[in-house]
Write a structure and sequence with these properties.
The protein folds into two domains: 214 residues, Rossmann fold (3-Layer(aba) Sandwich); 249 residues, UDP-N-acetylmuramoyl-L-alanine:D-glutamate ligase (3-Layer(aba) Sandwich). Helices cover 40% and strands 15% of the residues. The protein is built from 18 helices and 19 strands. Strands 8-1-10-19-18-17-16-15-14-11-12-13 form a twelve-stranded mixed β-sheet, sandwiched between helices. Helix 2 crosses helix 3 and helix 17 crosses helix 18. Belongs to the NnrD/CARKD family. Belongs to the NnrE/AIBP family.
Length: 498
């Protein structure tokens, strides 16, 4: 079955190929395709701001500016008052024809100099730069972007916010912060992860009538995750059918990390969950969550019988990097069991790299990813797609690169992007929770790729449900009830907060 354009994410080169295919399939000119984009932009503008009477369209010299000029023509015809502000005295290529159409319709163009204030309008439309933009904006462009962002007026971006790089989502300089972005023909992959998710606002795709036959021959670079869960269990199921997760971690003062991972594994459906931790934590864990089988482990010898009974390992939450944690880490990895590696499990891996031959999922945040690759965190964030794929290739594992728009990559280059989640999830313990959910999916028979995709989706969607009571102050444990509801395909809201 062909992939829906609404889930498919493409590189800039792929989008250009789709544009050429669209021209041939629709038998239209570039100008006519640009006019379709303008119609889609006007539709988006009227739906989101039906009371808007005056708009300002800020046009760059290329095709993105051309979309803006034609939007101006249509908006005037629809009865709106339109101000057009241009970065340059002239436009190039097809945009020049669009600019001429705007003038022929009686429109005027004001050149942006930065010397005068922006027009007082109901909506600013960003049509400065599109997918061909690959640098930091210059001084004049930056001044206009900053003025628009500071105006407290709603912003509609055409195709993508100016200043954002379509392939990576990097923002090397000033960048438009849009309230709504309408992107044309296909989703650009960089708009769905990292800093970009703050810049695009509400994101809509307008395919401009491009037929499925244009998309079919081209494999997307990545996909947005679909909302999925495991099938219902057989009525005769028993706990042994759903795996035994062993959480290894909780050094001095870090019992909470191991508990969160273990409890998440239970709520996500693992049949049994054991915790190998420091002796000082056992009583507290047994009292707080008796369903977790907590065991005091002083070193590798005590861990080995637990490894034999386990089917999946969750290695790293609160593990520490000292002698105790390192010894357990080595022993656990040598056991050859399917493993989820997180937190200090990843920090130890950065010290002692290895390629995994057993099913393994790594779940780094950008800081851990930077240590694993030996680069700066900024390097990771500049191109999260390349970083995730390189980590997967280098370690022979499925990798979840966490953050806004988490990425899931496998060693062959396959990559999915999570469209859910919220800023409230940027709090302690959320990563430990994800570790437990991934481990539970592995324990219930999923292969690493499916386990990672299911877990990331369930975890992020649970976070969104929990955030209905507010993002600020959201706790990792607030996700446990919605996680259980989603894992059983129950309707939104079918849970109670503890």
């Amino acid at each position: 079955m062909p992939t829906s354009p609404h889930r498919a994410l493409y590189t800039v080169d792929q989008v250009r190929a789709l544009e050429h295919g669209a021209l041939d399939a629709l038998a239209v000119s570039n100008h006519e395709l640009m006019l379709r984009a303008a119609h889609a932009a006007l539709d988006t503008l009227r739906r989101h701001w039906p009371q808007a009477a005056r708009i300002a369209i800020h046009c760059g010299p290329g095709n993105n500016g051309g979309d803006g000029f034609l939007l101006g023509v249509l908006a005037r015809q629809a009865g709106l008052q339109v101000d057009v502000v241009a970065l340059t005295e002239s436009s190039r290529g097809e945009a020049a024809q669009a600019r001429a159409a705007w003038r022929a319709a009686g429109g005027s163009v004001r050149r942006w100099t930065g010397a005068e204030p922006l027009p007082a309008v109901d909506v600013h439309v960003d049509a400065m730069y599109g997918i061909g933009f690959s640098r930091a904006p210059g001084a004049a462009e930056s001044a206009l972007i900053d003025a628009i962002n500071a105006s407290a007026t709603p912003v509609l971006a055409l195709d993508l916010p100016s200043g954002l790089l379509a392939d990576s989502g990097d923002c090397p300089g000033a960048v438009i912060r849009a309230d709504v972005t309408v992107t044309f023909i296909a989703h650009k992959r960089g708009m769905h992860t990292g800093r970009a998710v703050d810049q695009v606002g509400v994101l809509e795709l307008a395919t401009l009538g491009v037929p499925e036959s244009v998309y079919a021959p081209l494999r997307p670079d990545a996909l947005l995750l679909a909302a999925e869960t495991l099938p219902p269990r057989a009525r005769h199921a028993n706990k042994g059918d759903n795996g035994h997760v062993l959480v290894i971690g909780g050094d001095h003062g870090m019992a909470g990390a191991a508990r969160l991972a273990g409890e998440a594994a239970l709520r996500a459906g693992a049949g049994l969950v054991s915790v190998a931790t420091r002796a000082e934590h056992v009583s507290a864990l047994n009292a707080a969550r008796p369903e977790l089988m907590a065991h005091a482990v002083g070193g590798p010898q005590a861990l080995e019988p637990m490894l034999e009974r386990a089917s999946v390992l969750a290695l790293g939450p609160g593990l520490g990097k000292a002698a105790w944690g390192h010894a357990l880490w080595l022993t656990a990895l040598d056991a050859g069991k399917p493993t989820v590696l997180d937190a200090d499990g990843l920090n130890l891996l950065a010290r002692e790299p290895r390629v995994f031959s057993t099913p393994t999922v790594l779940t780094p945040h950008p800081g851990e990813a930077a240590r694993l690759l030996g680069v700066a965190v900024d390097d990771i964030e500049r191109d999260r797609f390349s970083a995730a794929r390189e980590l997967a290739r280098r370690h022979g594992a499925v990798v979840v690169l966490k953050g806004a728009g988490s990425l899931i990559a496998d060693p062959d280059g396959r990559l999915d992007v999570c469209p859910w989640g919220n800023p409230g999830m940027a709090s302690g313990g959320m990563g430990d929770l994800l570790t437990g959910v991934v481990a539970a999916m592995l324990a219930q028979g999923c292969q690493p790729w499916d386990a990672a995709c299911l877990a990331v989706g369930l975890h992020a969607r649970a976070g969104d449900l929990a955030a209905r009571q507010g993002e600020r102050g959201l706790l990792a444990s607030d996700l446990l009830d919605p996680l259980r509801a989603l894992g059983n395909s129950l309707p939104d809201g079918a849970f109670l907060y503890a």
